[in-house]
Amino acid sequence: MGEAARHPGTTPARSWLRRAATLVGVALLTGLVQVPTATSAHADTGSGSSTAEVDVDSLTPTAPAKNDTLTISGTVTNDGDDTISNAHVGLRLAGGGPLTSRSAISNTAANGGFSTVDGNEIPGHTANLPDIPPHISLPFTLDVPVSALGLGNDGVYQLGVTASGTTKDAAYQHVLGIKRTFLPWYSQSGGEKTRTTFLWPLIDRPHMDIRTSGDDQQSPLFRDDDLTAELAPGGRLEQMVSLAKGLPVTWVIDPDLLATVDAMTKPYKVLGPDGDPKQATPGAGTEYAKQWLNELQQAIQGDEVVALPFGDPDIASIAHHGKDVSGTLGHLKDATDLAAVTVQTVLGVTPRTDFAWPADGAIDPSIVGVATAGGADKIIARSDSLRETGALSYTPSAARPIGGGTTAVVADSSLSKAFMGDLTRADAETLAVQKFLAQSLMINEQAPGQQRNIVVAPQRMPTTSQAQAMAAAIAAARSGGWTDPATLSAAAKATPDPGANESVPSADAYPASLRRQELTTDAFQEIQSVQDSLDSFLVILSRKDRVTTPFGTAVLRSMSTQWRGDTDNAAHFRGDVAAYLSGLTQDVHIIDKKSITLSGRSATIPVTVQNSLAQQITGLQLRLTSSQNNRLDVGQPQAVTVDGGHNRSLKFRTTASANGKTWVAAQLFTADGTPYGQPMVFQVNVTSITDTVMLVIAGGLLLLVLAGIRMYRQRKRRALLAADNTADEPQEPDEGHGQAAEGGDRVPEQPGDPAADTAAESPGDRAAGEKVDR
C-alpha cells in the first residue's frame, strides 16, 4: 500500500485501497471495529506508514547528557495522492532498552515500515503540522527533554521519528511515515575509553602533464584545472583542511598532491582542447594554491603525518599484475623515498613512510609481499578483508602481527564505510553521523573494562559532504566521553588482542570487484618500456636532472591507485608520457641524405647530427658501415658532442677500391654500444676512374705513338736526300735551304704536353669532388 501511494498510477494498489476502505466501512456499520483515537494503542498500527517520508536533517546534541533537550528538525513529505490532515511529528523510543550488538544497529537501519517494536510516542512532546497536500514537504522542529525519554543503562538506543495524521481513506490518527536513527547514551562514564585513530586522507588523482609550456619560464603544464575548484573556498580539498583544524586526526597524504599544488603556486598553464599544448591557457588557481598550503601547514601542527608513496601507487595492482615486470618493484621503492623528501620540502615536517594502504584495505599474501618490498612494515587493512573467526565476543584492537616483522593495522569496516554514498542531503549526513557514533559506543560497551585501539580508514577521496559528516562525527565522539584520540603509530604499537585473527586471507579471497579495477600487466609493461627508453636517453644528456624528475614522477603517477575505474584516462596518460619521451629522443638524430657520388679513390663523406634539445648532448658515437666493405672503406667511428639547438657535421675519410654503387648506414651509438635512434641509410656511387677519362688517356697515347713514327720517317727521308745531294753537287752554302724547310712539312705540336693533360681532365670529377666536400 505504501508503494502504491508513492506511485499513484498503479491501478491494482488503488483498487486494493478502495476495497480496504469499503471493508472498514462495513465493519464500522456492524459494530465490529472501534474507531481508534490519537491516544489509543490502535493509533500505532502502522497503516499507511509509507505514505509520508520523514527526513531528519538535524539531531542535537548528537550524544546528549541527562540534562539536555533533544532538538530534532527535518521535513515531512506527503508521497500519497490525498491530503494529510491533523498531522503531527512525534518521537518514539524502541522498547527493550539499548541495542545489544553491532549487527542490531545495521539491521535497524534497514527496517521497513512502522511496527509496534518502534515503541510508543513520547506524550506531550510533539510538533503539530498544518494539512499537507500531496507531494508537498513541510518542515518541523521537535524538542524533547532527554529526561522524558526514560533512558536507562549506557548504550545505543533506537529512536523513531514518526509523522502521524489522517487521510481521506483512513480518517483516524495513524502513523504515516517513520525515520529511524540512533541515540548514543553514555552517562555513567565508567570503564576504559576506546582509543580511536581517524585517518584523514589528502589524496587526488594526477593532474600534471609531463610536458612544460615551452615559454621562457618553462611553466608547468596541467592536463586540466580541476584543482582550482577543489582548492577554492568551499571546494573539497579546502574543506578537508579547514574541517580538520583542531580535530585529533592522522593525516594521510599523497605527496604528489603536495607537489602539484606547490607547482600551482607559480604561474602555470593548462592544456588546450584535446590536450593541445599550443593552445594552453594560464591556470587560475595560483592564489588558491598558496592559501591552501599555508592553511595546511597550520592545520597539521601537532598531528601525525603519514606519507603514502609518491603518486599513491596501486600496490594491489602491482602485486597481481606488475611485480613480475622488470623494474616495477623498484619504482615503488623510489616512490617511498621521494615521498619523505616531498613532504619535508613542501610542509616542513618529517612524515611516517612505513605504512602501506592498499585499495579498500583488502590484502592477500602477494599484496603484503609487495608492500614490504616497497619499504613498509605496516599495512593498513580493513576488517572485511582480515575477518574475525568468532573466537572473540568483542571488536579487537587494530594491530595484528602477520609474520615477517610486518603488522597489519586493521581498520574497522563499519566505521570506515559509515561515510560512503551520497551525503549531500542533510538527512543522509545526520543518519551517517548517528550511525557512526552508535557503532563507536557499541564497541566500547562490548568490553568496557578493556582498553582497545580502533582505527577508522574512510574512502581515499571523500566528497565535501562526506568530509563534513566525518568531522562532525569525530567531534561528537570526542565530546561523548567514551573515546580518546590516538595516532596511527600508537595504534600500530598497541598490544594485539589474544585470539584476534592474524591470518592473511588467500589470493582467492580477494574481492573480484576490486580485481576488475586493477591496472593490467600490459599497462605495467608500457610503463617499463618508458623507463627503458628513458634510461637510454639519459646517458647522452649533460643535464640529466631536467629529465629524470618529470619523467620519474610521471612513471609513478602512471601507477596511481586513483586510476581504478578510469582505464581510458589511465591509458591516455601512459600514452602521452611515452609519446613525449619518443619525441624528445628523436630530437637528436642524423639528418637524412639520399645519395652521394665519389669521383676519386679517396674522398670525404659528411654526416650531420642535429640536436634540437635545449641542452648539450654527449657520449654518443657515430659509425658508418658499408654494405660492400671490399669496395668502400668508410673510415673510423667518431665521437659526437653537440650543443643544444645546434647541428654538427662529421667528415669520414673514405677509400674506394672499385667502381659501383654501395649502401652506407650511419648509426649513433651510446657509450655501451647500444644503438641510439634509427639508422640513416644512403647510397654512395663510386666512380674512381671514369670511362671518359680512360678514352681520353688512350687517345692521347695513340697520338703520341703516331706522331713519333711520323717524325722518325721525316728525319730519315731528309737524311737520305741530304746524302744524295752531297754526292751529286759540290758543297756550297745552300741559300734556299731555309725556304725549303719552310716549304717542307711542318712539325706538328707535340701531344701530351701539360696543356693537353689539363684539357683531358673530366669536369665531372671536379663537380663530384665539390659535392662530397660541401
Automatic annotation (TrEMBL):
Residues 1-43 form the signal peptide. InterPro entries: DUF6049. The chain crosses the membrane at residues 693-712. Pfam families: DUF6049. Residues 39-52 have a biased composition (Polar residues). It comes from the Bacteria. Residues 39-74, 723-774 are annotated as: Disordered. Keywords: Membrane, Signal, Transmembrane, Transmembrane helix. Residues 763-774 have a biased composition (Basic and acidic residues). This is DUF6049 family protein.
